[in-house]
Amino acid sequence: MRAGQPLWRRSSKCGNENECVEVAVGRDRVHIRDSKAPARPALTFTAGVWSAFLDSVRAGELQSP
């Protein structure tokens, strides 16, 4: 956060495209938004829920069969 505003980041793999997920990390919350619609409300998760989601992605648990 800077001056009360989230610092939005996106993967370097997005390049110059505007079709990415952006993430902003706060003290105890993680905010997610669609780069195509930054004015829309962001999804907000606790840090623990976001961490569990990332662990599941890394473990391949969310891949379709």
List keywords for this structure.
65 residues, alpha+beta, 1 helix, 4 strands
Question: How would you sum up this structure, described in words?
Answer:
The protein is α+β, with helices and mostly antiparallel strands and about 60 residues long. About 20% of the residues lie in helices and about 25% in strands. It contains 1 helix and 4 strands. The chain has a 4-stranded antiparallel sheet with strand order 1-2-3-4. Strand 2 and strand 3 form a beta hairpin. The longest helix is centred in the last third of the chain and has 12 residues. It is globular, with a radius of gyration of 13 Å. The model has no long low-confidence stretch (mean pLDDT about 85).
Write the layout of secondary structure elements.
Layout: E1 9-10, E2 21-25, E3 29-34, E4 43-46, H1 47-58
Strand content: 25-35%
Order of helices and strands: EEEEH
Secondary structure class reads alpha+beta
Q: In which order are the strands of the major sheet placed?
A: 1-2-3-4
Q: Compute the gyration radius: what is it? A: 13 Å
Mean pLDDT: 86
Summarize the biggest pleated sheet.
4 strands, antiparallel
- What is the β-strand count? 4
Low-confidence stretches: none
N- to C-terminal distance: 38 Å
Helical residue percent band: 10-25%
Shape: globular
